[in-house]
Amino acid sequence: MKKNIFIALLFIGGLTACSDNNEGSDIPDNPGYPVTHFSKIELKEVKEEPGAPAVTVTQTYDYSAGRLINFTSTQSFVAGGELFKIENATNVVYGDHQAVVTMKLIISRPTRWMIMLCYKLRAPRNGW
Questions:
Q1: Which residues pair with 75 in a beta bridge?
Q2: What is the pTM of this model?
């Protein structure tokens, strides 16, 4: 009897949790196209090791229409009383059967210097 109730509850839960209603969504309806339904994911972690300054790592993923459009990874730490920051930013623009990826790496020590490297990659969306 308990087994039948458990199966019935699972079935009812599955029916109420699943929905084909995508009204108002700009996510493509293509089963072969992987998408996410989040608009932003941010992960933050403080890494500590003996004898080294604590490093704060932040990763941010931005999505539009179910596709990744921006990814930023930032590492920051304080050494000698000054803040050091390393930022890797990636931007993706989707076009006619292609994706243009722009990457930017910034290494900075605000009171002294900053290094910035940028590069672009064009790749067809369906592979090379």
A1: 57, 86
A2: 0.63
Residue 15 predicted with pLDDT over 50 = no
In sequence order, what DSSP letters do the residues of 31-61 get, joined into one string? TTS---S-SEEEEEEEE--TTS--EEEEEEE
Contact 89, 71 (CB under 8 A): yes
- Sequence-distant (6+) residues with CB within 8 A of 63 are 36, 38, 39, 40, 41, 69
pLDDT digits (tens, 9 = 90+) for 16-30: 554 455 555 555 566
The alpha-carbon radius of gyration of the chain (Å, integer) is 22
- 18's CB contacts (< 8 A; 6+ apart) are none
The partner residues of 41 in beta bridges, in order of sequence, read 61
Rounded-to-integer distance, Cα 75 and Cα 117, Å: 16
Cα separation, 51 vs 49, in Å, equals 6
Model confidence over 33-84: pLDDT tens digits?
677 778 899 999 999 999 888 999 999 999 988 888 999 999 999 888 888 8
